Amino acid sequence: MNATLLFVQALNGLQFGILLFLIAAGLTLVFGVMDFINLAHGVQYMVGAYLGATLAAWTGSFWLGLLLTLPATLGFGLLLEFLVFRHFYDRDHLSQVLATFGVILFLNEGVRVVFGTAPLQMPMPELLSGGVTVMDGLLYPTYRIAILAVGLATAGLLWFLVERTRAGMLVRAGASNAPMVSALGVDIRRLFMLVFGFGAMLAGFAGALATPILSVEPGMGDTPLILAFVVIVIGGIGSIRGAFLGALLVGLVETLGRGLMPDLMRLVMDPSAARQTGAALASMLVYIVMAAILTFRPAGLFPARR
């Protein structure tokens, strides 16, 4: 792999990491604040992608569709919280896993019934359809750079809300000692509901952003969900800073590993075996990195303050 291709893959890894952060940020808040294991977080990413594509088609504008997706996914998340999830806050983790897995099956099948099984394609917004010269003779898609910029801005805003506002103070206090916060007069159930809805909105926002570069199809949230759990474990459960840095690390390892491992294996194997072995090792690389980090930092790189 030459230097130009390596640079492009690194940019792709950062962009993938930003999308993972938008998914993992809501997941780490729900898990860290509410101690609730939500396996259905990935389908909220899928729902956001379908809503973004549908609303953009109805309005004829990608930007208006993206804007409308935010309140739509927020409302959908609050509806799920009211109908299903709030009834399992006080149950054990196994009950939460079973309930949210049932939601995954229900929503995946619902999407197949409503939209069919054929993938949907979302046209690239015309304003961002070109490329930006990042090196001599190398154009990088403008839309992917826009995802990087939007993700960084969202990360900064989220950090400010959690660390520098009263609402963020209540969220952090609820993560440390929810009964005490409730005893001080804070409606902890409403706080949990808002945290859950906000997490769903972030996941849906990530799905809508990904529609022009990924196929929108049933089950598309399964793989990002697994990687999002890896992100919050590496970064530290409940930590926004940890989720951000963990997402960038996972995005780079996942993308560069798939590009580099086959080439590295060719140094010691014939091309056919190197391709197969490299692909197998690349799929394991993220989990190897996670295991190595947890060996030295069992609580993650940046665990939330308790």
Distance between the termini: 45 Å
Total number of strands: 2
Q: Beta-strand percentage?
A: under 5%
Outline the low-pLDDT stretches.
none
Structural class: mainly alpha
Strand and helix order: HHHHEEHHHHHH
What strand line-up does the widest sheet have? 1-2
Number of helices: 10
The oligomerization state is single chain
What integer value in Å does the Rg equal?
Answer: 20 Å
Helix content: over 70%
Largest sheet data: 2 strands, antiparallel
Average pLDDT rating: 86
Shape: globular
Structural commentary:
By secondary structure, this protein is mainly α. The chain is 74% helix and 3% strand. The protein has a domain at 9-218. It has helices spanning 3-34, 41-59, 62-83, 93-115, 142-164, 166-183, 188-210, 222-235, 240-265, 271-296, and strands at residues 131-135, 138-141. A two-stranded antiparallel sheet has the order 1-2. Strand 1 and strand 2 form a beta hairpin. Helix 2 packs across helix 7 (188-210) and helix 8 (222-235) packs across helix 9. It starts with a helix and ends in a 10-residue tail after the last helix.
